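Input C-alpha coordinates:
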Protein backbone atom coordinates (compact mmCIF):
# COMPACT_ATOMS: atom_id res chain seq x y z
CA UNK A 1 0.00 0.00 0.00
CA UNK A 2 2.90 2.35 0.68
CA UNK A 3 4.36 1.30 -2.66
CA UNK A 4 1.10 2.29 -4.39
CA UNK A 5 0.94 5.59 -2.49
CA UNK A 6 4.28 6.55 -4.04
CA UNK A 7 2.77 6.04 -7.47
CA UNK A 8 0.82 9.25 -6.72
CA UNK A 9 3.08 12.23 -7.60
CA UNK A 10 3.81 14.44 -4.60
CA UNK A 11 3.77 17.58 -6.72
CA UNK A 12 0.90 18.91 -8.79
CA UNK A 13 -2.51 18.63 -7.11
CA UNK A 14 -1.05 17.30 -3.84
CA UNK A 15 1.31 20.27 -3.50
CA UNK A 16 -1.42 22.72 -4.56
CA UNK A 17 -3.74 21.52 -1.81
CA UNK A 18 -0.91 21.70 0.75
CA UNK A 19 -0.16 25.29 -0.34
CA UNK A 20 -3.87 26.13 0.04
CA UNK A 21 -3.67 24.80 3.63
CA UNK A 22 -1.11 27.34 4.86
CA UNK A 23 -3.64 29.44 6.80
CA UNK A 24 -5.06 26.33 8.46
CA UNK A 25 -1.61 25.31 9.69
CA UNK A 26 -0.83 28.80 10.98
CA UNK A 27 -4.13 28.93 12.87
CA UNK A 28 -3.15 25.87 14.90
CA UNK A 29 0.47 26.68 15.73
CA UNK A 30 1.22 25.13 19.11
CA UNK A 31 3.03 28.25 20.31
CA UNK A 32 -0.45 29.80 20.55
CA UNK A 33 -1.83 27.11 22.88
CA UNK A 34 -3.51 28.89 25.80
CA UNK A 35 -4.17 25.88 28.00
CA UNK A 36 -0.84 24.07 27.92
CA UNK A 37 -0.44 20.68 26.33
CA UNK A 38 -4.18 20.00 26.65
CA UNK A 39 -4.53 22.36 23.66
CA UNK A 40 -1.52 20.96 21.80
CA UNK A 41 -2.13 19.78 18.23
CA UNK A 42 1.42 18.62 17.58
CA UNK A 43 1.37 20.70 14.40
CA UNK A 44 5.11 20.18 13.93
CA UNK A 45 4.54 16.48 13.31
CA UNK A 46 1.71 17.30 10.90
CA UNK A 47 4.25 19.40 8.99
CA UNK A 48 6.70 16.48 8.86
CA UNK A 49 3.95 14.29 7.42
CA UNK A 50 3.01 16.90 4.82
CA UNK A 51 6.66 17.20 3.76
CA UNK A 52 6.55 13.46 3.06
CA UNK A 53 3.23 13.73 1.20
CA UNK A 54 4.47 16.43 -1.22
CA UNK A 55 7.70 14.57 -1.96
CA UNK A 56 7.52 12.70 -5.26
CA UNK A 57 10.41 10.48 -4.22
CA UNK A 58 13.24 9.09 -6.30
CA UNK A 59 11.15 7.35 -8.93
CA UNK A 60 11.68 3.94 -7.32
CA UNK A 61 8.37 3.45 -5.47
CA UNK A 62 9.53 0.36 -3.57
CA UNK A 63 12.68 2.05 -2.32
CA UNK A 64 10.74 5.19 -1.43
CA UNK A 65 8.21 3.15 0.56
CA UNK A 66 11.08 1.73 2.60
CA UNK A 67 13.06 4.93 3.17
CA UNK A 68 10.32 7.63 3.19
CA UNK A 69 12.16 10.49 1.43
CA UNK A 70 11.34 14.11 2.22
CA UNK A 71 12.90 17.54 2.13
CA UNK A 72 14.97 18.74 5.07
CA UNK A 73 12.44 20.79 7.02
CA UNK A 74 14.26 21.78 10.22
CA UNK A 75 14.57 25.51 9.69
CA UNK A 76 14.33 27.63 12.81
CA UNK A 77 12.93 26.60 16.15
CA UNK A 78 9.37 27.93 15.72
CA UNK A 79 6.46 26.27 13.94
CA UNK A 80 6.01 29.38 11.78
CA UNK A 81 9.43 28.78 10.22
CA UNK A 82 8.58 25.12 9.59
CA UNK A 83 5.34 26.13 7.83
CA UNK A 84 7.18 28.63 5.62
CA UNK A 85 9.69 25.95 4.61
CA UNK A 86 6.89 23.51 3.84
CA UNK A 87 5.08 25.98 1.59
CA UNK A 88 8.31 26.92 -0.19
CA UNK A 89 9.07 23.24 -0.81
CA UNK A 90 5.55 22.66 -2.12
CA UNK A 91 5.72 25.66 -4.47
CA UNK A 92 9.16 24.77 -5.82
CA UNK A 93 8.63 20.98 -5.67
CA UNK A 94 11.96 20.68 -3.86
CA UNK A 95 13.49 17.20 -4.36
CA UNK A 96 14.10 14.87 -1.43
CA UNK A 97 17.34 15.23 0.50
CA UNK A 98 16.51 13.29 3.68
CA UNK A 99 14.99 9.93 4.71
CA UNK A 100 13.08 8.76 7.80
CA UNK A 101 13.23 5.00 7.48
CA UNK A 102 12.86 3.57 10.98
CA UNK A 103 9.05 4.07 11.08
CA UNK A 104 6.49 2.69 8.64
CA UNK A 105 4.74 6.05 8.03
CA UNK A 106 1.61 4.15 7.04
CA UNK A 107 -0.52 7.30 7.20
CA UNK A 108 0.79 8.16 3.71
CA UNK A 109 -1.55 5.58 2.20
CA UNK A 110 -4.39 7.92 3.24
CA UNK A 111 -2.73 11.34 3.16
CA UNK A 112 -1.42 11.27 -0.39
CA UNK A 113 -4.74 10.25 -2.00
CA UNK A 114 -6.69 12.63 0.25
CA UNK A 115 -4.46 15.61 -0.55
CA UNK A 116 -4.93 14.83 -4.23
CA UNK A 117 -8.59 15.86 -3.80
CA UNK A 118 -8.85 17.92 -0.60
CA UNK A 119 -7.21 20.65 1.46
CA UNK A 120 -6.09 20.18 5.06
CA UNK A 121 -9.25 21.77 6.49
CA UNK A 122 -11.47 19.45 4.43
CA UNK A 123 -9.44 16.42 5.52
CA UNK A 124 -9.92 17.47 9.15
CA UNK A 125 -13.68 17.42 8.60
CA UNK A 126 -13.46 13.93 7.09
CA UNK A 127 -11.28 12.73 9.96
CA UNK A 128 -13.67 14.24 12.49
CA UNK A 129 -16.70 12.59 10.90
CA UNK A 130 -15.08 9.14 10.89
CA UNK A 131 -13.83 9.47 14.47
CA UNK A 132 -17.24 10.72 15.67
CA UNK A 133 -18.89 7.68 14.09
CA UNK A 134 -16.41 5.36 15.80
CA UNK A 135 -16.86 7.03 19.20
CA UNK A 136 -20.66 6.92 19.00
CA UNK A 137 -20.57 3.29 17.83
CA UNK A 138 -18.32 2.36 20.75
CA UNK A 139 -20.55 4.17 23.26
CA UNK A 140 -23.59 2.30 21.94
CA UNK A 141 -21.88 -1.11 21.93
CA UNK A 142 -20.25 -0.58 25.33
CA UNK A 143 -23.57 0.38 26.87
CA UNK A 144 -25.25 -2.61 25.25
CA UNK A 145 -22.59 -5.05 26.46
CA UNK A 146 -21.33 -3.48 29.69
CA UNK A 147 -23.99 -1.01 30.79
CA UNK A 148 -22.69 1.75 33.06
CA UNK A 149 -19.05 1.06 32.14
CA UNK A 150 -19.67 3.04 28.95
CA UNK A 151 -19.31 6.08 31.24
CA UNK A 152 -15.65 5.17 31.83
CA UNK A 153 -15.06 5.23 28.08
CA UNK A 154 -16.75 8.64 27.68
CA UNK A 155 -14.67 9.87 30.62
CA UNK A 156 -11.39 8.70 29.05
CA UNK A 157 -12.22 10.15 25.63
CA UNK A 158 -13.08 13.53 27.17
CA UNK A 159 -9.76 13.60 29.06
CA UNK A 160 -7.87 13.05 25.78
CA UNK A 161 -9.38 16.20 24.20
CA UNK A 162 -10.71 14.58 20.99
CA UNK A 163 -11.38 17.99 19.36
CA UNK A 164 -7.61 18.48 19.14
CA UNK A 165 -6.92 14.87 18.18
CA UNK A 166 -9.08 15.38 15.07
CA UNK A 167 -6.66 18.07 13.85
CA UNK A 168 -3.55 15.98 14.48
CA UNK A 169 -2.91 13.06 12.15
CA UNK A 170 -0.32 11.62 14.50
CA UNK A 171 -2.53 11.78 17.60
CA UNK A 172 -5.38 10.30 15.55
CA UNK A 173 -3.42 7.12 14.80
CA UNK A 174 -3.52 5.73 18.36
CA UNK A 175 -7.06 7.05 18.89
CA UNK A 176 -8.19 5.04 15.85
CA UNK A 177 -6.42 1.92 17.13
CA UNK A 178 -8.06 2.17 20.56
CA UNK A 179 -11.54 2.71 19.16
CA UNK A 180 -11.31 0.02 16.48
CA UNK A 181 -10.09 -2.52 19.04
CA UNK A 182 -12.97 -1.67 21.40
CA UNK A 183 -15.40 -1.95 18.48
CA UNK A 184 -14.12 -5.41 17.54
CA UNK A 185 -14.16 -6.63 21.14
CA UNK A 186 -17.74 -5.49 21.66
CA UNK A 187 -18.88 -7.03 18.37
CA UNK A 188 -17.14 -10.39 18.52
CA UNK A 189 -16.37 -11.31 22.13
CA UNK A 190 -18.14 -14.36 23.51
CA UNK A 191 -17.23 -17.07 25.97
CA UNK A 192 -16.55 -19.42 23.08
CA UNK A 193 -14.43 -16.91 21.15
CA UNK A 194 -12.51 -15.27 23.97
CA UNK A 195 -9.30 -17.09 23.02
CA UNK A 196 -9.49 -15.57 19.55
CA UNK A 197 -9.40 -12.05 20.92
CA UNK A 198 -5.61 -12.29 20.73
CA UNK A 199 -6.04 -11.52 17.03
CA UNK A 200 -7.74 -8.23 17.91
CA UNK A 201 -4.81 -7.27 20.15
CA UNK A 202 -2.23 -8.42 17.60
CA UNK A 203 -3.96 -6.37 14.91
CA UNK A 204 -4.08 -3.37 17.27
CA UNK A 205 -0.35 -3.60 17.89
CA UNK A 206 0.31 -3.82 14.17
CA UNK A 207 -1.93 -0.81 13.47
CA UNK A 208 -0.02 1.30 16.00
CA UNK A 209 3.36 0.21 14.61
CA UNK A 210 2.25 0.96 11.04
CA UNK A 211 0.66 4.39 11.58
CA UNK A 212 2.17 5.86 14.76
CA UNK A 213 5.56 7.46 15.38
CA UNK A 214 5.77 7.17 19.16
CA UNK A 215 3.01 9.24 20.72
CA UNK A 216 0.89 7.44 23.33
CA UNK A 217 0.77 3.78 22.16
CA UNK A 218 0.01 2.31 25.60
CA UNK A 219 -3.51 3.79 25.44
CA UNK A 220 -4.29 1.56 22.45
CA UNK A 221 -3.50 -1.48 24.59
CA UNK A 222 -4.48 -0.69 28.18
CA UNK A 223 -7.97 0.73 27.65
CA UNK A 224 -9.21 -2.07 25.33
CA UNK A 225 -7.58 -4.61 27.67
CA UNK A 226 -9.62 -3.44 30.67
CA UNK A 227 -12.81 -3.64 28.62
CA UNK A 228 -11.83 -7.18 27.61
CA UNK A 229 -11.35 -8.05 31.30
CA UNK A 230 -14.84 -6.69 32.01
CA UNK A 231 -16.31 -8.84 29.25
CA UNK A 232 -14.34 -11.82 30.54
CA UNK A 233 -14.99 -11.34 34.27
CA UNK A 234 -17.17 -14.44 34.54
CA UNK A 235 -14.13 -16.60 33.81
CA UNK A 236 -12.08 -18.01 36.68
CA UNK A 237 -9.07 -16.17 38.05
CA UNK A 238 -6.61 -18.54 36.39
CA UNK A 239 -8.33 -18.26 33.03
CA UNK A 240 -8.43 -14.46 33.32
CA UNK A 241 -4.70 -14.36 34.04
CA UNK A 242 -3.77 -16.44 30.99
CA UNK A 243 -6.15 -14.47 28.76
CA UNK A 244 -4.61 -11.16 29.86
CA UNK A 245 -1.06 -12.45 29.40
CA UNK A 246 -1.97 -13.87 25.98
CA UNK A 247 -3.51 -10.60 24.81
CA UNK A 248 -0.54 -8.60 26.11
CA UNK A 249 1.87 -10.90 24.28
CA UNK A 250 -0.22 -10.65 21.09
CA UNK A 251 -0.17 -6.84 21.17
CA UNK A 252 3.57 -6.79 21.85
CA UNK A 253 4.32 -9.25 19.03
CA UNK A 254 2.12 -7.29 16.63
CA UNK A 255 3.67 -3.98 17.63
CA UNK A 256 7.32 -4.98 17.96
CA UNK A 257 7.20 -7.55 15.18
CA UNK A 258 5.82 -5.27 12.49
CA UNK A 259 8.05 -2.39 13.57
CA UNK A 260 11.23 -4.48 13.44
CA UNK A 261 10.07 -6.00 10.14
CA UNK A 262 10.33 -2.50 8.64
CA UNK A 263 13.96 -2.32 9.69
CA UNK A 264 14.71 -5.71 8.15
CA UNK A 265 12.90 -5.07 4.86
CA UNK A 266 14.36 -1.58 4.47
CA UNK A 267 17.87 -2.88 5.14
CA UNK A 268 17.45 -5.69 2.58
CA UNK A 269 15.80 -3.62 -0.16
CA UNK A 270 17.95 -0.47 0.15
CA UNK A 271 21.55 0.51 0.84
CA UNK A 272 20.81 1.88 4.34
CA UNK A 273 21.39 -0.07 7.56
CA UNK A 274 17.96 0.64 9.06
CA UNK A 275 18.30 -2.22 11.57
CA UNK A 276 21.24 -0.44 13.19
CA UNK A 277 19.41 2.90 13.17
CA UNK A 278 16.23 1.38 14.61
CA UNK A 279 17.97 -0.50 17.42
CA UNK A 280 20.06 2.52 18.33
CA UNK A 281 16.99 4.74 18.61
CA UNK A 282 15.14 2.19 20.74
CA UNK A 283 18.08 2.00 23.13
CA UNK A 284 18.36 5.78 23.13
CA UNK A 285 14.70 6.25 24.02
CA UNK A 286 14.98 3.97 27.02
CA UNK A 287 18.09 5.84 28.15
CA UNK A 288 20.72 3.20 27.32
CA UNK A 289 22.45 4.54 24.19
CA UNK A 290 24.00 7.99 24.47
CA UNK A 291 23.43 10.50 21.69
CA UNK A 292 23.92 14.20 21.20
CA UNK A 293 22.49 16.27 24.08
CA UNK A 294 18.69 16.17 24.03
CA UNK A 295 16.71 19.32 24.65
CA UNK A 296 13.02 19.96 24.20
CA UNK A 297 10.84 22.15 26.43
CA UNK A 298 13.99 22.51 28.59
CA UNK A 299 13.34 19.04 29.99
CA UNK A 300 15.37 17.16 32.58
CA UNK A 301 16.06 13.77 31.00
CA UNK A 302 15.52 11.52 34.02
CA UNK A 303 12.91 9.03 35.13
CA UNK A 304 11.64 11.51 37.69
CA UNK A 305 11.55 14.16 34.97
CA UNK A 306 9.46 11.90 32.74
CA UNK A 307 6.91 11.36 35.52
CA UNK A 308 6.88 15.01 36.56
CA UNK A 309 6.49 16.53 33.09
CA UNK A 310 3.82 14.14 31.88
CA UNK A 311 1.61 14.18 34.95
CA UNK A 312 2.01 17.97 35.15
CA UNK A 313 0.89 18.17 31.52
CA UNK A 314 -2.08 15.93 32.31
CA UNK A 315 -3.34 17.69 35.45
CA UNK A 316 -4.83 20.92 34.13
CA UNK A 317 -7.93 22.91 35.00
CA UNK A 318 -9.64 21.24 32.05
CA UNK A 319 -8.90 17.67 33.14
CA UNK A 320 -9.76 18.57 36.74
CA UNK A 321 -13.15 19.85 35.57
CA UNK A 322 -13.78 16.67 33.57
CA UNK A 323 -12.85 14.52 36.58
CA UNK A 324 -15.14 16.59 38.80
CA UNK A 325 -18.07 16.25 36.40
CA UNK A 326 -17.55 12.49 36.19
CA UNK A 327 -17.56 12.14 39.99
CA UNK A 328 -20.76 14.19 40.26
CA UNK A 329 -22.44 12.03 37.58
CA UNK A 330 -21.24 8.90 39.36
CA UNK A 331 -22.61 10.07 42.70
CA UNK A 332 -25.96 11.08 41.18
CA UNK A 333 -26.22 7.74 39.41
CA UNK A 334 -25.51 5.88 42.61
CA UNK A 335 -28.10 7.83 44.60
CA UNK A 336 -30.71 7.56 41.84
CA UNK A 337 -30.27 3.79 41.37
CA UNK A 338 -30.24 3.11 45.11
CA UNK A 339 -27.29 0.84 44.57
CA UNK A 340 -25.02 -0.68 47.14
CA UNK A 341 -21.28 -1.17 47.45
CA UNK A 342 -20.17 -4.71 46.63
CA UNK A 343 -16.47 -4.79 45.67
CA UNK A 344 -15.17 -7.39 43.23
CA UNK A 345 -11.61 -7.99 44.44
CA UNK A 346 -10.48 -9.58 41.18
CA UNK A 347 -11.64 -6.59 39.13
CA UNK A 348 -10.05 -4.20 41.63
CA UNK A 349 -6.76 -6.05 41.16
CA UNK A 350 -6.90 -5.74 37.36
CA UNK A 351 -7.88 -2.09 37.61
CA UNK A 352 -4.85 -1.49 39.83
CA UNK A 353 -2.55 -3.25 37.34
CA UNK A 354 -3.86 -1.15 34.45
CA UNK A 355 -3.73 2.03 36.55
CA UNK A 356 0.03 1.71 37.21
CA UNK A 357 0.89 0.79 33.61
CA UNK A 358 1.47 4.42 32.47
CA UNK A 359 3.84 4.94 35.39
CA UNK A 360 5.80 1.86 34.30
CA UNK A 361 5.82 3.20 30.72
CA UNK A 362 7.19 6.58 31.80
CA UNK A 363 9.93 4.93 33.87
CA UNK A 364 11.05 2.58 31.08
CA UNK A 365 10.80 4.88 28.04
CA UNK A 366 11.85 7.86 30.14
CA UNK A 367 14.09 9.55 27.56
CA UNK A 368 11.29 9.89 25.03
CA UNK A 369 8.65 10.66 27.67
CA UNK A 370 10.71 13.43 29.30
CA UNK A 371 11.28 15.07 25.91
CA UNK A 372 7.75 14.65 24.55
CA UNK A 373 5.18 15.34 27.27
CA UNK A 374 3.11 17.11 24.60
CA UNK A 375 2.50 13.65 23.13
CA UNK A 376 2.96 11.24 26.01
CA UNK A 377 0.72 12.95 28.60
CA UNK A 378 -2.26 11.08 27.20
CA UNK A 379 -0.77 7.85 28.59
CA UNK A 380 -1.64 9.28 32.02
CA UNK A 381 -5.35 9.13 31.08
CA UNK A 382 -5.14 5.37 31.69
CA UNK A 383 -4.81 5.93 35.45
CA UNK A 384 -8.08 7.87 36.04
CA UNK A 385 -9.81 5.62 33.50
CA UNK A 386 -8.87 2.52 35.52
CA UNK A 387 -9.98 4.25 38.73
CA UNK A 388 -13.29 5.11 37.04
CA UNK A 389 -13.83 1.46 36.09
CA UNK A 390 -13.02 0.43 39.66
CA UNK A 391 -15.50 2.94 41.10
CA UNK A 392 -18.21 1.86 38.68
CA UNK A 393 -17.49 -1.75 39.62
CA UNK A 394 -18.00 -1.04 43.32
CA UNK A 395 -21.65 -0.17 42.76
CA UNK A 396 -24.12 -2.99 42.36
CA UNK A 397 -27.48 -2.04 40.89
CA UNK A 398 -30.46 -4.00 39.66
CA UNK A 399 -29.06 -4.15 36.12
CA UNK A 400 -27.72 -7.42 34.84
CA UNK A 401 -23.94 -7.38 34.74
CA UNK A 402 -23.43 -10.54 32.65
CA UNK A 403 -22.34 -9.59 29.12
CA UNK A 404 -24.40 -10.83 26.19
CA UNK A 405 -23.04 -13.86 24.42
Amino acid sequence: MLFLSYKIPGGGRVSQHVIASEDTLRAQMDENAKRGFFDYYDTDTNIIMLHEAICSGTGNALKDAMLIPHTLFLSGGETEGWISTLIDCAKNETPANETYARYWHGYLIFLKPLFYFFTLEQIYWINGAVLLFLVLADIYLLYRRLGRYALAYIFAVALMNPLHIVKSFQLSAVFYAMNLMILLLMLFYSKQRRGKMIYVFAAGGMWVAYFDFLTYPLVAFAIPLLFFILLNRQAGVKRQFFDVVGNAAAFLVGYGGLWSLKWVLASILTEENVIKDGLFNVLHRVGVAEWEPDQMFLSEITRWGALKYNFSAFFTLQTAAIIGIFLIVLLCGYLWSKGKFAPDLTMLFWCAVVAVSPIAWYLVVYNHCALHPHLEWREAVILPFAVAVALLGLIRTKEKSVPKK
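The chain has two domains: 2-118, 122-396. The CA atoms of residues 286 and 365 lie 4 Å apart.
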